[in-house]
Write a structure and sequence with these properties.
By secondary structure, the protein is α+β, with helices and mostly antiparallel strands. The chain contains 7 helices and 17 strands. Strands 9-8-5-6-7-17 form a 6-stranded antiparallel sheet, with no helix packed on it. The chain has a 5-stranded antiparallel sheet with strand order 12-11-10-13-14. It has a 3-stranded antiparallel sheet with strand order 1-2-3, with no helix packed on it. About 35% of the residues are buried.
């Protein structure tokens, strides 16, 4: 039968595409050099399991790769172990891309809301510092629950006579030119805020709630990326390494090819089913997955290793990463290039985590100067030292003044 269509192997991409959902006629079938029938769909070859000829597994010609396998226990180099645990595959590569892309949203939501700063502010002690002039109250063009976030810029004179400019945030609006009480974070010299405001753009409470509301949604995407890029490869590696070291060799005949339903970079992931015979003569079936189906079906019988105590635990050698090679008489080794992309993905991901944490704990710090700030051209910061509750109106250390209900800047800005 193989002699009827010997050219089908050399040019499988030149045959017409076939709808796998329609019945196949004999003219649409093709046969490879081993007499296995197959069809080509979207330029890819699919073996037809229902037409697979009966094969005597005990009389299969020996695959030359069997001779390269040393006796157990085989050596598995450290590089090979790392590649098997963390190496680049189509699935893990997609997982790292997905994970790095998802981390962008973590940077945006976790970093720009300054959740870390908001939480630290909530638990900090704030001390009265001075009275300042509200220089500007800018709308941040961000609304949460119908409330706009404003950026307060204030300027004034410190108790030691130096001038300062600072920024804090609030959901309350005030007209520039008003006096505001300024607080200093205990244990710092330049972390200032207007009384009742926050150093975080969305406040110490709303910012935290905003993060709590968005993070569960983001965590779903992060979990998918972690599973594809890390958990999945590590689990497969932990199953594969013992089989390479002490698995019993066998030859598996491909009997079925079917899509797994997973799409990676526009290509269907395929699952190839093999039938093999164990040492005790019993026959079993196993499977391997991959995007390159030709690599998994290029031999009449693929070499695999199985666990003699549990023959369902197998690994097909052609399913291993391409960088993993057999060392005749010794075991398995690998070239480290299979770790390049996962390493790049891990570095990018860690950089995104670090940047998100940096933004999250970023704090606006006041700027001190011996000269009046530029804001004095419009508002006189020194006037803030003239407390309206003092009959004399002379400048003094306002942080030591006892406020009354009539003092505007003693009220909470919220």
């Amino acid at each position: 039968m193989s002699a009827e269509r010997p050219d089908a192997i050399e040019s499988p991409l030149n045959v017409p595409q076939i709808d796998p959902n329609e019945p196949l006629t004999s003219a649409e079938r093709q046969f490879d050099a081993q007499g296995r029938p197959f069809v080509v769909v979207d330029g890819r070859r699919y073996v037809l399991a229902e037409d697979e000829p009966d094969v005597d597994l005990a009389s299969l010609p020996e695959n030359p790769k069997l001779a390269e396998l040393p006796p157990v226990p085989r050596d598995v180099s450290t590089t090979a172990k790392l590649v098997l645990l963390f190496g680049s595959t189509a699935t893990s590569t997609f997982g790292w891309f997905w994970l790095c892309f998802s981390m962008i949203f973590v940077v945006v939501f976790f970093g720009t809301t300054r959740v870390g700063t908001a939480l630290l502010d909530r638990g900090a002690t704030w001390e009265p510092f001075a009275i300042a002039t509200l220089v500007a109250c800018d709308d941040g063009n961000v609304e949460i629950n119908g409330r706009s976030a404003y950026r307060w810029k204030f300027a004034g004179q410190a108790p030691d006579g130096s001038y300062f400019e600072g920024v804090s945030h609030s959901f309350a609006y005030r007209e520039p030119g008003q006096l505001v009480a300024v607080e200093k974070k205990a244990g710092t010299t330049d972390v200032l805020r207007a009384e009742g405001t926050s150093t975080a753009p969305f406040g110490d409470s709303l910012g935290s709630l905003f993060f709590v509301a968005t993070f569960p949604f983001l965590s779903i995407f992060l979990f998918i990326g972690v599973c594809l890029a890390i958990i999945g490869p590590v689990r497969r590696g932990l199953r594969t390494i013992p089989l390479l070291r002490s698995g019993a060799p066998a030859q598996g005949v491909p009997v079925d090819v079917s899509p797994t339903g997973t799409w990676i970079n526009g290509r269907d992931e395929m699952e190839v089913t093999y039938r093999f015979q164990a040492v005790n003569g019993a026959e079993f079936e196993t499977s391997a997955r991959g995007l390159n189906i030709d690599r998994l079906t290029d031999d009449p019988a693929e070499v695999l290793l199985y666990d003699p105590e549990n023959p369902k635990r197998t690994v097909v050698l052609d399913e291993l990463p391409k960088s993993v090679k057999t060392v005749p008489g010794k075991g398995f080794t690998a070239r480290p290039f299979g770790l390049i992309f996962p390493l790049i993905g891990a570095v990018v991901c860690l950089a995104e985590v670090g940047y998100a944490l940096k933004l999250s704990f970023q704090t606006d710090r006041a700027v001190f100067s011996t000269e009046p700030p530029t804001a004095a051209a419009q508002f006189d910061p020194s006037a803030a030292l003239n407390c309206p509750d003092c009959e004399s109106g002379t400048p003094h250390n306002h942080s030591q003044h006892v406020h009354t209900d009539a003092c505007d800047h003693s009220h909470d800005a919220e």
